[in-house]
Amino acid sequence: MGQIIAGAVAAIVILVVLIFMAGYVKASPDTAVIISGLRKNPKVLIGKAGIKIPFLERKDELNLQLIPIDVKTSNAVPTADYININVDATVNVKISDNEERLKLAAQNFLNKNAEYIGRVAREVLEGNVREIVGKMALEEMVSDRQKFAFLVKENAEPDLAAMGLDIISFNVQNFVDGNGVIENLGVDNIVKIQKNAAISRAESEKE
Questions:
Q1: pTM, whole model, 2 decimals?
Q2: Nearest partner of 116 among 69, 170, 58, 172, judged by Cα
Q3: Beta carbons of 49 and 27 less than 8 angstroms apart
Q4: Which site in 9, 23, 44, 55 is 20 to 30 Å from 124, CA atoms measured?
């Protein structure tokens, strides 16, 4: 009888160990592993290990790495002073590791690849770029790209946060218009600089 009990205990121990080994899950720092099934609120692992109960729980993943996006307006957008321009910007977004936003990201992007997430984010960002272009004068945008980038980022953050995404960086690469207005602004600035330099030189020579 004792041998039977010992054998049964040993079998249970082996079974528990096998279940533990089969359910052992380890998440890297750039991946959120989501374990769901038995819990009302799924368990999230980022950079640590946990246990998934085989057959009763499932494991899904969200990639937390940066997603680079090239955001270009699909057609010309009128500025506040009615000059049509195109904007080219580079943006980095990522799935948020904030607990609440991560839940939203799980609802929207669970097991989706970076290309899909980037495509969704690009559509949102382009809409926000168009909105800010319509509120600013061309000369203001060209002379202060950081302000333009800040306004777009500020405007887009709530929209992306609602999907579980964070904007890490937003950089304007170029403004382009089809009528040479931006080029003429540059010429005007050069002329002003040359004029001021000539005046300063004349005053210096006079002294």
A1: 0.75
A2: 69
A3: yes
A4: 44
At 82, phi and psi to the nearest 5?
Answer: 65, 40
- Can you tell me the distance from the alpha carbon of 182 to that of 188, in angstroms, rounded to the nearest whole number? 10
Instruction: Return d(Cα 85, Cα 131) in angstroms, integer.
Output: 13
* Cβ burial 116-148 (10 Å sphere, 16+ → b, else e): ebbebbbebbbebbbebbeebebbebbeeeeeb
Q: What is the torsion angle, in degrees rounded to the nearest 10, for the CA atoms of residue 32, residue 95, residue 63 and residue 55?
A: 40
List C-alpha distances in Å: 167 to 69, 132, 146. 11, 17, 15
**Residue 88: predicted pLDDT:** 95
Nearest C-alpha neighbor of 120 from the set 63, 67, 175, 173? 67
Q: β-pairing, 58-63 with 24-26?
A: unpaired
At 52, is the secondary structure helix, strand, or coil?
coil
